[in-house]
Structures are given as structure tokens and as C-alpha cells.
Amino acid sequence: MKALRLTLMAATLMASVPMAAVHAQPAPAVPSAPVTQQGPRYPAFTEADARAVLNARLAAIRTVLELTPEQERLWEPVEAAIRDIVRGAAERRARGTSAAAPTHFLDVLSGIADAEEMRARELRRFVSAAKPLVDSLSEAQRRRVPAFLGMDDTGGPNQPSAQLWLFEEEG
Hints:
Blueprint: H1 2-24, E1 35-36, E2 39-40, H2 47-65, H3 69-98, H4 105-136, H5 139-149
Antiparallel strand pairs: 1-2
């Protein structure tokens, strides 16, 4: 009986050693996007990608709003304003990436101030274009707009304009 136990223990031990070696081997590497200090690096977002995303967002907001035929006529100036704002944000981003690096922290603050002034002008233009449409919306339709634009739940004067998807191309 003792010999049988020793044989079983030895067989178990010998069988487990190769299995442990198999399990101890590192898993094969999974290919991934190159990683930078900011995180994984993905292929560049092209102009065509940006246009497709904008078109999808415009189609989505029209769908979410469920515009009536009368409201559809008021939508055209809103869409034109949004397209102009997004185009301007993309142009500012392109200029910013090709500009010389700031040499002083005041240069950075000045750039932030310029961007905020431009966003303020463009937000006013959007508000002017959207006012006739928004005035015609039902309460249910109005409730759907803020979250869709990227506004947070608190709203109010502390809502950062850079969080609005209108300006994400400026990024």
C-alpha cells in the first residue's frame, strides 16, 4: 500500500512538472497600437473622417429632435452655422500645430485667450442661428439638445466651451 502511494505521488509530481512549465510560459504578445506618453497612438483622423463624423452628428441631432416640416426650414441656418464653426475650429487646429512652440508661459495664456474669444464669437453666431429653431421646439425637443451638444448636467456659466463637440477639432 505504501509503495502504491509513493508511486501515485511520484506520478502526480512528474505529471504536474511539465504542466507547470506550460502554464508558467508567458502569453504571446498581442499586437497593439504604439504607446506614447499620452496613451496609445492611433492612425491620424483624416479630413474625410471628420466630415463623416460631422455628417453623422448632424443627422443624429435631426433624428433626435424629430423636426416638423415647419422646423425643417429653420434647421438650414443652424446646420450652416455648425459647419462653419467646425471648419473654423479645424483651421485653427491646423494653424496651431504648424505654429512655432511658445517661448513663454504668457504666450500660452495669450493663445488660450485668443481661442476663448473666437469660441465666444462662434457660440454667439450659433445661438443667433439656432434661436428661431429653438423657439419653435416643443419642451420635449428642447430637453434633448444640451446633452447632445456635449453640455454637462450642471450647465450654467461654468460650462467649458472646449467640451462642446462644435470645437473638438480645435483640440
